[in-house]
Amino acid sequence: MTERVVLAYSGGLDTSVAIGWIAEETGAEVVAVAIDCGQGGEDLDVIRKRALDCGAVEAVVADARDEFANEYCVPALQANALYMDRYPLVSALSRPLIVKHLADAARYHNATMVAHGCTGKGNDQVRFEAGLAALFPELKVLAPVRDSGMTRDKAIAFAAEKGLPIDVTKKSPYSIDQNLFGRAVETGFLEDIWNGPIEDVYDYTQNPAEERPADELVISFTAGVPTAIDGKELTPLQIIEELNRRAGAQGIGRIDMVEDRLVGIKSREIYEAPGAIALIAAHQELENVTVERELARFKRGVDQRWGELVYDGLWFSPLKKALEGFIVEANQAVTGDIRMVLHGGRAVVTGRRSEASLYDYELATYDTGDTYDQSLARGFIDIWSMPAKIASLRDHKLS
Amino acid sequence: MTERVVLAYSGGLDTSVAIGWIAEETGAEVVAVAIDCGQGGEDLDVIRKRALDCGAVEAVVADARDEFANEYCVPALQANALYMDRYPLVSALSRPLIVKHLADAARYHNATMVAHGCTGKGNDQVRFEAGLAALFPELKVLAPVRDSGMTRDKAIAFAAEKGLPIDVTKKSPYSIDQNLFGRAVETGFLEDIWNGPIEDVYDYTQNPAEERPADELVISFTAGVPTAIDGKELTPLQIIEELNRRAGAQGIGRIDMVEDRLVGIKSREIYEAPGAIALIAAHQELENVTVERELARFKRGVDQRWGELVYDGLWFSPLKKALEGFIVEANQAVTGDIRMVLHGGRAVVTGRRSEASLYDYELATYDTGDTYDQSLARGFIDIWSMPAKIASLRDHKLS
Amino acid sequence: MTERVVLAYSGGLDTSVAIGWIAEETGAEVVAVAIDCGQGGEDLDVIRKRALDCGAVEAVVADARDEFANEYCVPALQANALYMDRYPLVSALSRPLIVKHLADAARYHNATMVAHGCTGKGNDQVRFEAGLAALFPELKVLAPVRDSGMTRDKAIAFAAEKGLPIDVTKKSPYSIDQNLFGRAVETGFLEDIWNGPIEDVYDYTQNPAEERPADELVISFTAGVPTAIDGKELTPLQIIEELNRRAGAQGIGRIDMVEDRLVGIKSREIYEAPGAIALIAAHQELENVTVERELARFKRGVDQRWGELVYDGLWFSPLKKALEGFIVEANQAVTGDIRMVLHGGRAVVTGRRSEASLYDYELATYDTGDTYDQSLARGFIDIWSMPAKIASLRDHKLS
Amino acid sequence: MTERVVLAYSGGLDTSVAIGWIAEETGAEVVAVAIDCGQGGEDLDVIRKRALDCGAVEAVVADARDEFANEYCVPALQANALYMDRYPLVSALSRPLIVKHLADAARYHNATMVAHGCTGKGNDQVRFEAGLAALFPELKVLAPVRDSGMTRDKAIAFAAEKGLPIDVTKKSPYSIDQNLFGRAVETGFLEDIWNGPIEDVYDYTQNPAEERPADELVISFTAGVPTAIDGKELTPLQIIEELNRRAGAQGIGRIDMVEDRLVGIKSREIYEAPGAIALIAAHQELENVTVERELARFKRGVDQRWGELVYDGLWFSPLKKALEGFIVEANQAVTGDIRMVLHGGRAVVTGRRSEASLYDYELATYDTGDTYDQSLARGFIDIWSMPAKIASLRDHKLS
């Protein structure tokens, strides 16, 4: 029986060419798998048809937007996941989702190989291959762009030679990856890190500097999961989409940074993640209201490690599962409403209310009604500062 | 000989009354100590004279703005210090500086006691007393507002009775603490955490929503210390002042948060820190360019602990000193220029350049000139993902 | 109706006197609560009768040894809990158990107060009061030894005056706390930290230096819970008891250390915990075999924080619950057998076997059968060392 | 001019053969570099002569024992470095020392290549190559055993064919690496992790179970550096040697563990490190006496990361340097004497004394002379437990 390869298929030039390229190289049949994780663009049916036209024996397409929102974006939100304190892990979240669908398709179609179109210097190759190693280690991985010299020029020549139904004339100057949770852009002139981005690189967000009226909304959470906007119950997918629209219209969520890749180098990245950034800001402030101090302090380190691990391609790893044991428990009481003003590139929390609030007006107020017993302070301070005081006495004695 | 008390003196109602109140309560002479850490307001000589008029036997005033900038704000910047990821420690930084001057004055004036005007439910009492415990543990601490019932009403009555030269009629609705690094505001209506702040609470910052032209500048750092703006060499004090002015004019650095106090409660705080927020954003991005990945990852935890420790009043503690052993070393290569646009409440980095850059164009580029050896990737990925893969195989076998 | 006080009752002099002392001081009725957490000594009925004879209106006794083993010692084992890398939290584990029974008894008997016999400079007062604050914050806490001058001399006089049925003549030179998980000893001559302990301070352990034959056993775990010794299924309580006996006979588990108390001072402590130390050694090595590397590395920090939190009296805190979310997940695969030799004060693992093992003979061996692909190494090493290499090149260039 | 290769030379079969093997393979001249880091065995001159006899154009030998003790073992001690809480990093410490000498020799002899005899599945290849990447990245690395098929059988045949002066008949069943700080043993029958080690695998330590008199000594430290035994000033090298002898004679420092290698697998390792284990135990207890609580708690995480980094081959990395900024500062007050009994496989601290002690008898004692103010406790406890208490009230309200 002819061997089969499952290919992560996007519909674009590289992976369309890869169908035939891999078939020639391996003699295997290619099953194309295209996943909608909210990247927009062409209809799944169009993509499906193109895969078949390019020579795939099967083309699997799946609308995984709800799955992506519920099982990938929501955990990231509960971890306030910002790699290097900035980047909401857009591509790093979608890769394990795609891997899961590839592994499922490989099982269904009895494939022995799997292929992706990544280069050899990015993070995504690691996310694909580390994910596959965890979910279906027996699969052999093909990476034609990285391992068998399928450069862009060769791909264009191949497409012309085979008469593939792909328009190779539209050449974007940008290398783009986008999904429900955000959009990443790389391009030549930004590889000079002294150059600033131009308006043209952005698509999910309007120019924050343009004048427009502010937008105010209330986001509701239950146990750290977003459940409603302005009192209207919505799914996580709907909430992220609405916030992408509304926060994007206000220019929120643009990120320009130099980033530490897993593969050893620093790179310059432009991201747009209007919904993600607004949601994380709201979730963090609701945590401030509902999460106890020592838990909140420790959670920062757990959240950081979660983000690094996912960035580093280790979504399907024992540590991630254990970190989520912590994070889910820590989100149990993160329930309530956050009022937020979206305006001029800023998502600003202006109000919070929660049945699970740990803010106690009567303890906090300086007005009538104060119930805080100030006579406790002296004993607390003396014991609190005692270790450092004894150390200080020691140091003075010795110096 | 009559005993002496050193009093942390601000020139305001409470500490002016405290001079006489403490004298009556203890029979001791009061030495007032007023420190300029950039809080603005009255001239030091005016404050000095008022202290004497209110009955102080001595009034020490000191312009400690450069000391505050160099020895307190710069270390905070090198630690990117943001308590709960938001608050740049404004008051928490000035208290140890004041403590140091109080301890020096107490030694000089042979005082046996020290007094402050803090209440019993805030953090500042801890910062004063923990600092004094470290620097001069033999001093007895007096806290008339907290411990001997010196309420505002009683203070006003005392001032009237003694004819103190204080205007008790201007009653601000706000409780304010401010210095070079920022400004903190608390007030009754904001104790309802669902209420948003009004424009009236702000002083260091203009309304970010107002239209105005953007402001672009280049900040230079040497080993993590800011040294110039737009190529003009300046002291840290001058840089923070200029950024307060320019970033403040753009509405940058407003913070509205629910915060975990050390004394066990959550409180609602409004801060303005235009210069601090702009500087930290610049410093962080220069770290992204110049600090190696594993160092950067570990430094986040060190920075967080530094911020907690300082917030918690433990400036003069062995752990802070050791953390700074790490932080100073980590800043050795944080040298270079950051170009930043200040506009509409946002301080956005648009360019970075550095002789100490670890960003390597030739490794990072996808254009001609790429020197990255992509054939290394496969070996890396296979070994990188091996532990999780083996665990995954185990889990599948067992389930 | 007369108010009621629930008293943590040990049967000893202090708490026996406290029954009458508290009754006199408050006019309340005293309900004595004695909990067996494996401390040995007198029969619960004897203790119960003594409480009543000393004036308690009710005396509640409970054999909580299984509860203690299952819900307090097992979580400690799963966290490899060793405060300061040494102390297995003996007393810190029993206090929350006692607190839980006190709170239950207070509800049942409609008490409004709760009393304990701790002094004001130890950790146990914090563990009692912090636990009660979490479980039953409305209770007023009485601490006669700390707060109302009930010194040992006064207690003896009180006992004599009231004719209480307590033998006040046996005066041990040692202050001892013991339970199923270990035994703590303090005494005057050891407060000089240059003095070594003498054989007389020990009770759970024989002298490790004495000659005796070694003892070998196999401990089995399921998901981090000890389930059998030498193939015989036992409860955690039975396993800890058997190991206390067998490891104690070999002199295992003696600890002599200077320790950081929560209340600000360092103290000198002697502990014996033969079963705990042997079990933790076995559990750690089974983790080495069954827990993936990155999970194992992060777990060390989680374990440390769990131990600090419990030592610090915060058993009933949100952070502990979230840490256990991590720890329980991390223990899911900690299943298998550990062979151990107990001898001469040492508990030494000599073998491990597990269906959940991640040790793969074929990958690890240097003999025939090696399946490890050594050609992967070069790519891995080059990318692994790239960030430090680039930093090194930068440093050489600049210096 | 003929190219030159610098070879890490041990004097054994593999690296002796490698001299000729590399010369044949590359046409280059081989400079052999042998470093004495306390591994014992043959005289350096014998090794030097053998290298030349085997065809090296130059043979560099260096007694680096003091350098190894001072610059590699002492920092490890200050970090209490125990990988996975057990392994004192024996081989991981010597590799960077050897790398430094290789890089120096390569510069001196104008080499363009460097060679080592490591296999492709161990950690040492990473330590060599990552170290060289940092110190001399231009060198090309040769690893004949890993990369060009130089198996043991082929090496023996090569030696016979070329008549190399090496005895190939003594075949040890053990794979051994040893130096001043300890000894590592791997062998076939121990690759079954259920098998226990036999007495024959050990060389640095006597059987701990044999009866012999105890040995008591006092180790003195200054700022975390060991400086004397029993009052006699010695160098770190002398101290480690004496402790290897005396602790080794008591069977101290045997380790048997399953370990997480950097290269993705778990392996079974036997170590002996009598001096290291005794010194770390002493240093830790002196830290308990002289290091303030919060510093000690944070230092555990820093120490762990230092150990992982060194184990992982990143000795010459920016993070290690910054961690040492912390560690050296934290050791400033670690000065004093530790009395220790070495006996029956145990190194037990029995006394500590220090001018820098933070243990305060008067605060700690329960006897006359107690200066601890117990009235402080209540205020401390109430504020300490307040956050968890408020969270508990919230949870009860909601459930």
From TrEMBL, chains A, B, C, D:
EC nos: 6.3.4.5
Pathway the protein contributes to: Amino-acid biosynthesis; L-arginine biosynthesis; L-arginine from L-ornithine and carbamoyl phosphate: step 2/3
Compartment annotation: Cytoplasm
Binding site for ATP: A8, Y9, S10, G11, G12, L13, D14, T15, S16, G117
Top class in the EC scheme: ligase
UniProt GO BP: argininosuccinate metabolic process; L-arginine biosynthetic process; urea cycle
Protein name: Argininosuccinate synthase
Organism: Nocardiopsis ansamitocini
Higher taxonomy: Bacteria, Bacillati, Actinomycetota, Actinomycetes, Streptosporangiales
The encoding gene: argG
